[in-house]
Amino acid sequence: MKKILFIMIALAAVLSSCNDYETYGDKKEKERNAIAKFISDRSIVVISEDQFNQQGYTTNNELNQFVKLDKSGVYMQIERPGCGTMLQDGESTRLVCRFSEYDILQDTTTICNNDPSIVYGGISVVTLPDIISVSRSGGSFTASFESGLMLKAYATASVPSGWLVPLSYIKVGRPQSLSDECAKVRLIVPHSQGHASASSNVTPCYYEITFQRES
């Protein structure tokens, strides 16, 4: 009797363990649900690429529009299109980026260097921008972090693919007058377009990022 009871307890433990195990499909479903909830909670209006194109590659920010880009699955809002020029085909440059990263699954900000009230190492984080080296070839971009919080936090120079998506649509000049503004975008980045940690943990992230040339 005791032997049968032991077997039943062991079997129950195995079944419980199996129920607790999440497949990749389960995690992707959780990601989709989390993104959908995030969009609903923030009253985001999702538009198609066709509508985005018809609007002159802009989003109506008064309506809180985000375009869903089919190829990458990234959702993008262009708050400011930037000044100066876009990154040209065959060009390589260094960009200064300030950003906040928000873990959509955990509902929390994970990294930030765009808030002057936050201090890191005794100094404001806005004095610690991320510097990325980026090159354009046709419609493709390659980039790597040279310095900054993303490099420190994730110990990799690889720039998330999702970060490069806006570069096809924004100008990355450095403001030269009071009327100039650097480009600013908001992104919902699925794990497949995120950094290595997001990819391995199937974590979608929300970003607010500014871009401008270093010089």
From TrEMBL:
One of its GO terms (molecular function) is peptidyl-prolyl cis-trans isomerase activity. InterPro entries: DUF4827, PPIase_dom_sf. Gene3D superfamilies: 3.10.50.40. It holds the Pfam family DUF4827. This is DUF4827 domain-containing protein.
